[in-house]
Design goal:
The complex is a heterodimer. The longest helix of chain A has about 40 residues. Chain A has 11 helices and no strands. By secondary structure, chain A is mainly alpha-helical. Chain B is α/β, with parallel strands linked by helices. In chain B, the strands form 2 sheets. Chain B has a 6-stranded mixed beta sheet with strand order 5-6-7-3-8-9, with helices on both faces. A 3-stranded antiparallel beta sheet of chain B has the order 2-1-4, covered by helices on one side. In chain B, a hairpin with a 2-residue loop joins strand 1 and strand 2. Chain B is globular and about 50 Å long. The two termini of chain B are about 15 Å apart. Classes of the chains: A mainly alpha, B alpha/beta. The interface between A and B is medium-sized, with 30 and 35 residues.
Chain lengths: ~260, ~230
C-alpha cells in the first residue's frame, strides 16, 4: 500500500473510531458511567505488556484484557451489592499499576498516550469492521437503551433482557476503547468517550441532537488532534483530548450566555 | 372471580435482612388492589419481585396473556438529560413494536398535548411528567398496571386528576390495577382490595375489612384518622 493510501486509511479508521466513541460515550454519560469509562481503558495496559512480552500484537493483549475487564464489571453488577464504581476504581487502578510494571520504555509511553504510527492493512480492516459493528449495535439497541435508562423494571416489563443488553453495551464500550488505544492510549481513551458526550449533554435538548453533537465533537477533536500530533511530532492522545476539552469549556461559556 | 395474579408464600431477603416472608394474596382480574404499609414495609420490593426484577422464594403467577405496565416510584435517570418526551415515547413504542397511532392514543388517554412532548423532560411540571410516564407505560397496551405511588411529588388537584384518569382507564379497558399509596383516603376511594404490609405480617381484603381502626393501629403503631369518601367502590 502507498503512503497516501495508508494515511487515508488511518484517517478513515480514526474518524470511524470517533463516531463509535461519540455514540457509546453518550449512553455512558447518561448511564452515569464516567468513572468506569475512564478506568476500563486502563485495564488494557497489562494486556499490552503481556502481548509485547509474548511477541504478540499489542492490540491482541489489550482486547483480551478489555474483554475480561468487561466481564468482571458485568459480573460485579449482577452478583454483588458492591457499588460498581468502587470495584471499577480499585481493580482498574491496580491493572494500570501492573501494566506499568510489565511494560517499559518507549512502548509504555506509546501505550499510555497513544501513537498511531504505521497502521497495517490488517489493523485498519479489523478496526473499520469493529467500528461498523459498534455503530450498528447502538443504532439497533438505542431504543432499548433509552427504556432501560428510565427504569430497569420498566425495561423488564417491556420484554427487554436487561442483563443481556448491559453485557452487549459493555462489550461495545470495550471494543470502542480497543479501537482508540492506538490513537489515545490507555490513559486518555476514556476521555474521548466522556468529554464529547459531556459537551453534547450541555448543548443538546433532545436525544438525536445529543448523539449528533457528541459524534461531531469526537470526530473533529480526533482529526484536529491527530493532525497537530503529526505536525508537532507529539503523542496524539493528549492533543486529541485537549481539542475535546476545548469544546467542553466552550460549551460552558455558550450555556452561560444562553 | 378470575385472578390476574396469585402470590404464594413469597419471601425476599437482602443479605440477613428479611423484607417479606410467607406472603400470599391474589389480585382479581379487572379490580384495583392497593398496597399500603409504613415506610420499609417492603411495598416497592414486592412490586419489583412481581415484575421479576428481584430473586425471591415462593411463587408469583400471572394469568396467561398478562401484559405488564409498571410505573416506578423512582426513575433511574436524571431529569436534566437532553431528552424530550417524544424521545421517551418513541423508544418505548419501538421496544413495544407499537406505531405512531398507539403513541397518539396513549397521549390522548392521559390527556397530554403532543406539543408538550417536544419539550425536554426537565421542563415539564411534576404532574405533566407523571402523565408522560403513564403514557409511556400505556404504550404496548398493558392489561395489568403496577403503579408505585403514582401521585408522589404532584400537587393535590393533579393527584386527583391522576387517580380519576387511572379509574377511567380501568373502566374503559378493564385493566387490573395494583398501586402503592400512603394516602388512605385515596385507597378507600379507589381500591376494591387492600393488602396491608408490615415486615413479616400482612392482611388482605376489601377496604372496609382490611382498614379497621384496630388493623391500622397494628400496622402503623398508632391510631390513624382518614377521610372516607361517600361513594367507596366496595
Amino acid at each position: 500500500m502507498s503512503t497516501t493510501t495508508l494515511a487515508a486509511s488511518a484517517l478513515a479508521l480514526s474518524v470511524c473510531m470517533a463516531v463509535a466513541a461519540g455514540l457509546v460515550g453518550s449512553f455512558a454519560v447518561m448511564r452515569r458511567m464516567t468513572l468506569a469509562a475512564d478506568a476500563l481503558s486502563h485495564v488494557a495496559l497489562p494486556g499490552i505488556g503481556i502481548a509485547i512480552a509474548l511477541r504478540l500484537h499489542p492490540l491482541v493483549g489489550a482486547l483480551a484484557l478489555l474483554f475480561l475487564g468487561t466481564l468482571l464489571v458485568w459480573t460485579v453488577e449482577n452478583r454483588t451489592h458492591i457499588a460498581t464504581e468502587t470495584v471499577t476504581g480499585v481493580v482498574f487502578s491496580v491493572a494500570l499499576a501492573v501494566g506499568g510494571i510489565i511494560t517499559s520504555g518507549e512502548e509504555l509511553i506509546d501505550a499510555l498516550l497513544g501513537n498511531p504510527g504505521q497502521l497495517t492493512a490488517w489493523e485498519t480492516g479489523v478496526g473499520l469492521a469493529v467500528s461498523a459493528l459498534v455503530v450498528a449495535f447502538i443504532a439497533r439497541a438505542r431504543h432499548a437503551l433509552v427504556v432501560s435508562l428510565v427504569s430497569t423494571e420498566i425495561a423488564l416489563t417491556s420484554g427487554i433482557d436487561t442483563r443481556r443488553l448491559n453485557l452487549a453495551y459493555l462489550l461495545a464500550f470495550a471494543a470502542t476503547v480497543g479501537l482508540g488505544l492506538r490513537f489515545l492510549g490507555v490513559l486518555l481513551m476514556g476521555s474521548l468517550l466522556i468529554i464529547p458526550a459531556a459537551t453534547a449533554r450541555r448543548l443538546a435538548t433532545g436525544l438525536n441532537r445529543m448523539l449528533a453533537i457528541s459524534v461531531a465533537v469526537a470526530v473533529v477533536a480526533t482529526v484536529l488532534g491527530s493532525y497537530a500530533a503529526a505536525l508537532l511530532h507529539r503523542s496524539s492522545g493528549p492533543l486529541i483530548v485537549a481539542c475535546a476539552g476545548t469544546a467542553f469549556f466552550l460549551s460552558l461559556a455558550w450555556r452561560r450566555r444562553g | 372471580m378470575e385472578k390476574a395474579l396469585e402470590v404464594e408464600k413469597l419471601g425476599i431477603r437482602f443479605g440477613r435482612t428479611r423484607v417479606l416472608e410467607g406472603l400470599s394474596f391474589s389480585a382479581p382480574s379487572g379490580q384495583t388492589l392497593a398496597v399500603i404499609g409504613p415506610n420499609g414495609a417492603g411495598k416497592t420490593v414486592l412490586f419489583r419481585a412481581l415484575v421479576g426484577s428481584l430473586p425471591h422464594d415462593g411463587t408469583v403467577k400471572w394469568a396467561a396473556g398478562t401484559r405488564l405496565g409498571y410505573l416506578p416510584q423512582k426513575l433511574d435517570l436524571d431529569r436534566d438529560l437532553p431528552m424530550t418526551g417524544a424521545d421517551f415515547l418513541r423508544a418505548k413504542a419501538a421496544v413495544a413494536r407499537a406505531g405512531p397511532a398507539d403513541v397518539a392514543r396513549a397521549l390522548a388517554r392521559v390527556g397530554l398535548d403532543e406539543p408538550l412532548t417536544l419539550q425536554p423532560i426537565g421542563d415539564l411540571s411534576g404532574g405533566q411528567f407523571q402523565r408522560l410516564l403513564l403514557a409511556f407505560v400505556l404504550i404496548g397496551d398493558p392489561n395489568v398496571l403496577l403503579l408505585d405511588e403514582p401521585a408522589a411529588g404532584v400537587d393535590e388537584p393533579s393527584q386527583e386528576r391522576l387517580y380519576d384518569l387511572i379509574r377511567r382507564l380501568q373502566e374503559d379497558s378493564g385493566v387490573t390495577v395494583l398501586f402503592i399509596s400512603h394516602d388512605l383516603s385515596v385507597v378507600t376511594h379507589y381500591a376494591t382490595h387492600v393488602l396491608c404490609l408490615n415486615r413479616g405480617r400482612a392482611s388482605f381484603g376489601p377496604p372496609r375489612v382490611a382498614l379497621t381502626p384496630e388493623s391500622l393501629t397494628a400496622l402503623y403503631g398508632m391510631p390513624l384518622r382518614f377521610h372516607v369518601h361517600d361513594d367507596p367502590r366496595c
